[in-house]
UniProtKB/TrEMBL annotation:
PANTHER family: PROTEIN SGT1 HOMOLOG. Residues 136-216 form the SGS domain. It comes from Plasmodium vinckei vinckei. GO terms for molecular function: protein-folding chaperone binding. Residues 31-121 form the CS domain. Pfam families: CS (PF04969), SGS (PF05002). Transmembrane segments: none annotated. CDD domains: p23_like. This is Calcyclin binding protein, putative.
Length: 216
């Protein structure tokens, strides 16, 4: 290992309230002033901040499954804050941060392996919200058979118990709209469709659609 390289491990979260207080008490450097970028593999996302000569005790961060807020102390009067809402969930406890004289790199383990992130941050514009939901859930509104194939493709075993575990995990970690969508789509389609998109499900009549297809 390079002698100039410091790895912050194990995972240590700073107090979010204290970070906000620090930000409020100092002069803030614009996010655009410091270059940063990201890359990914099937299992991890790498977020790099190109700030030189950062001491370990001058780098503070708060991270959870879908969000990070970090602060770099530039000097006694200035701080560089950075806040990101992730495109998809990560596993916070697996976070590894490497500090070198030239940069800071965060290694973030994806919660859903093999999921390709379109970008680092989650979109917040209402005009593209529905599109985002379909990116995160590529089999929205599809049949149970297609969901099963999807589960198997990301490493689940082929037995029904493992597939059931996959569905339960999605339901458990989803928000209220996702849960409503899964329940209604499954029940009203007699178990043939499972959707996670409430906007798509709330006005759908799966039984009518099925009958219309049979008449054709």
């Amino acid at each position: 290992m390079d002698n100039d390289q410091t790895i912050l491990e194990p995972f240590t979260n700073s107090d979010l309230e204290k970070l906000n207080e620090l930000k409020a008490s100092k002069a803030v450097i614009s996010e655009k002033k410091v270059r940063h970028d990201w890359s990914q593999t099937n299992n991890c996302v790498f977020f790099t901040i190109y700030q030189k000569n950062v001491q370990t005790n001058n780098f503070l961060y708060y991270i959870k499954s879908d969000y990070i807020f970090l602060i770099i102390k530039i000097n006694e009067t200035e701080v560089y804050p950075l806040e990101k809402f992730f495109f998809s969930k990560i596993i916070p406890s697996k976070t590894v941060i490497t500090i070198t004289p030239m940069k800071i790199e965060l290694s973030l383990e994806k919660d859903i392996k093999e999921l390709k992130w379109d970008q680092l941050e989650k979109k917040t514009n209402n005009d593209v919200q529905e599109k985002d939901e379909n990116v995160l859930n590529p089999f929205t509104g599809k049949s149970i058979e297609e969901w099963t194939k999807f589960a198997q493709s990301i490493g689940e075993d082929e037995d029904n118990q493992s597939i059931d575990h996959f569905f339960r995990k999605i339901y458990k970690e989803g928000d209220d709209d996702l849960k409503r969508a899964m329940i209604k789509s499954f029940q009203t389609s007699n178990g043939t469709v499972l959707s996670t998109n409430w906007k798509d499900v709330q006005n759908k009549d799966y039984e009518k659609e099925k009958n219309d297809k049979l008449k054709k």
